[in-house]
Amino acid sequence: ARYYATGEFNPGEKGTRIAFSWAKIIGMYGFWFGSFYAQYNVYSYLISSIFKFLLYPFSS
To answer: Its domain of life (predicted)?
Structure first.
């Protein structure tokens, strides 16, 4: 547990420090936001088209 506070392992504890580059971190955030945006558009389109299809008989 000490690793997350100080960045060091406990004495005698084996472990490897994993460091990510800033480009990789920013790239992951870009991917997350981009996929969220794409999914939002796809699902809102699907829901609105199903809704319009169900209400089609009631339109004049």
So the answer is: Eukaryota
